[in-house]
Design goal:
Layout: E1 14-17, H1 22-37, E2 55-57, H2 68-89, H3 93-98, E3 99-110, E4 116-119, E5 126-134, E6 146-148, E7 175-177, E8 183-188, E9 193-195, E10 204-215
Antiparallel strand pairs: 1-8, 2-3, 3-10, 4-9, 5-8, 5-10, 6-7, 6-9
Helix pairs in contact: 1-2
């Protein structure tokens, strides 16, 4: 008997790397550690997602900062988002030139024991995480891993051997990612995700951002439905 297995629903999760990023990451690390040391001046004043004192979260204005290293990172991240949007939607360059973005971005400096609870990013279409450094722990451990929770939560209401060991992309568990310096991960903003406790003796530093789009010249009636 011949069977054909198809994927009925799929979620794009995009990975890429910043080329020749060692110098940039050193600049970013020095900058973020210095700003985090200033405490409330740069801290997110109204945190929503559960975290602990071992994790510093900045305010959400990072991509407005004037430093050259921040500008270079912003340009790389937004170029990757535009490339992703173009590929997934089939947009040509003329359409991309009409797409304007609004962004928010921030950094995390995580020390031993720091973690970030499950959440998503409302009011945006794409989100990303860039890794500045992840040092001082066992790379084979779960320390500081980025965990994307399976959105098909009801799939676990009944599990037997018929479905218990399905291979990706059909497996029911979370998708675990250990980011290394220079990695950029992009995902739809609605996906629930979390960061597991970092158990290293050094630092884990990441930059997170959200993007939403407006089509130049579009009226509400121009937005396709269905």
């Amino acid at each position: 008997m011949k069977i054909q297995v198809n994927t009925a629903f799929a979620i794009p999760v995009v990975t890429t790397r910043m080329p020749d990023c060692d110098g940039l990451n050193r600049e970013l690390r020095e900058l973020f550690v210095a700003k985090a040391a200033e405490g409330d001046r740069y801290r997110n004043p109204d945190p929503f997602v559960h975290r602990n004192e071992a994790l510093f979260e900045s305010n959400f204005r990072l991509f407005d900062w004037p430093q050259d290293c921040v500008r270079r990172l912003r340009d790389f991240c937004l170029a990757a988002v535009y490339r992703t949007v173009a590929e997934l939607n089939g947009y040509d360059q003329a359409t991309l030139r009409r797409l304007h973005t609004a962004t928010e971005a921030w950094f995390h400096v995580t020390r031993r024991g720091g973690y970030f609870g499950a959440h998503n990013h409302p009011m945006h279409s794409w989100s990303g995480v860039y890794c500045v450094c992840h040092e001082g722990d066992d790379p084979e451990s779960r320390s500081g891993q980025f965990s994307i929770l399976n959105p098909f939560a009801t799939s676990t209401m009944y599990i037997d051997y018929g479905i218990a060991h399905m291979k990706p992309p059909f497996a029911m568990g979370p998708r675990m990612v250990r980011l290394t310096a220079g990695d950029l991960l992009l995902f739809p903003s609605w996906l629930i995700h979390e960061v597991l406790p970092y158990e290293g003796d050094d630092l884990r530093i990441t930059v997170a951002f959200n993007v939403r789009f407006r089509l130049e010249g579009a009226r509400p009636a121009d937005v396709p439905v269905g």
